[in-house]
Design brief:
Layout (H helix, E strand, L loop, with lengths): L1 E5 L5 E7 L1 H6 L1 E5 L5 E3 L2 H15 L4 E8 L16 H4 L5 H4 L3 E9 L5 H12 L5 E3 L4 H11 L12 E3 H6 L2 H8 L5 E4 L3 H13 L5 E4 L5 H6 L2 E5 L5 H6 L2 E3 L4 H42 L7 H11 L1 H6 L24 H27 L2 E2 L2 E2 L10 H5 L15 E3 L2 E3 L14 H21 L16 H19 L1 H7 L6 H11 L1 H28 L1
Helix pairs in contact: 12-15, 12-17, 15-17, 15-21, 17-18, 17-20, 17-21, 18-19
Length: 541
Amino acid sequence: MGVIVQSREGKNCLLVKGAVENVLERSAFLQLKDGSIVEMDHRSREILHTKLNSMSSKALRCLGLAYKEALGEFSTYDGEKHPAHGKLLDPANYATIESDLIFVGMVGLRDPPREEVKGAINDCRDAGIRVIVITGDNKNTAEAICREIGVFYDGEDISRKSFIGKDFLALSIDQRCRILSGSGGCVFSRAEPRHKQEIVRMLKDAGEVVAMTGDGVNDAPALKLADIGIAMGIAGTEVAKEAADMILADDNFSTIVSAVAEGRSIYNNMKAFIRYMISSNFGEVASIFLTAALGMPEGLIPVQLLWVNLVTDGPPATALGFNPPDLDIMKKPPRRSDDKLINAWVFFRYLVIGLYVGVATVGIFALWYTQDSFLGIDLSGDGHSLVSFSQLTKWGECPSWEGFKVEPFTAGSKTFFFDNNPCDYFTTGKVKATTLSLSVLVAIEMFNSLNALSEDGSLLVMPPWVNPWLLLAMSISFGLHFLILYVPFLAKTFGIVPLSLNEWILVLVVSLPVILIDEVLKFFGRRMAEAERRSRKLKYA
């Protein structure tokens, strides 16, 4: 920056400040401590450069200061009406005007990074996010600041990670691509606007998702080009804010990292909702398919399935949107923009859980018909008759069975008799078995919602009470189920009957294993994720 000012004596003088190296290049003279002016020789330049390197290595942002009194035609410059004003409108003339300067000295400005920045940089590294610094500062200053904030480790070899902007663009395209595709942080110093644009463009061409921060007018083109342009809300210019996709209200880098964590949490909660709904619905489909494939009586009627899908599943699915972030959410590698929402592993998990839901729902239906006890739980209290599994799967042949008789059984306050037609035992008499199937379906889906608290996190690490809304939703769903079970006219509408204590214990015994199954699947999921993290760390090292 250069300005023409007028001294008290009325004499014009050009005052210049800027990057020390650039100011030195345009300086022909040196003002000494006693005020005398001498010609700038090679030794003087070396001493000044040594001092600059010393100050820059201490993370000081250095400015060179110079002036010029012999201004020629600008000696009488007094404003826009001056004949020489036209030359000031053309930047190509600046180097000539700002020549033969008298170098006065340099100053080092200390702009300490915020305390939380180093921790945010470490979070980025753990999360697989590369931090690349592009700055107009001196190379030594930029390197010292990057070491201070954790972009580089102490003692790390940064010979292929730190470049002056023009030197980087002077490299071949292959060399530039190799540098940008490497791991870990990078810093580009003395960068010009076109350097920033080129770096952003190359990263995008390599398939990276690029977030660019900036505050000045010269940052606007790169902000516009980036996938996510982030302008500073306090120090940012209006031009930068207009070009950006997002404005950082507090100008704090750690806020960006927090936003990444929040975004990952929102995405995970969306996946939790999908995982819960798909696995539950798959279980219902598996139940219907298994019933038909085995030839058993229909276990669930349409109105019951509608009740489960529209009412019982709704509250837990909604509450999953309030899941807190996983404890290791910022230790997982980022997903690519073209990653599938449902990959092979996730689909396999849906399949396993869905199959268990189907098997449990059909299995308890068959248990009631074929067993008088299960795991020590007595099921004979209602007095119902037992049939073989073969008879259950061939119930359509019942009219041809000789001597087939069925004893009456009680369900709640009602007793079912089959004196006229014993084969009704598989139609109207299936009401207790159907109630058990429906209750297992509801209970198992409630427990499955606990599985959806975290994609890979165990319930031992993220217990159910981390999301109190989910516990409330489960209570509402169970309450609605109890309502249709124990209010007589609702029970009649849904074709179900009240259950005894032993029958509820059986429902819980059959339903709870869904948690254990998903815990095992989560364990293998964590192992795979850990292997991927180790691979990424080895690459970084």
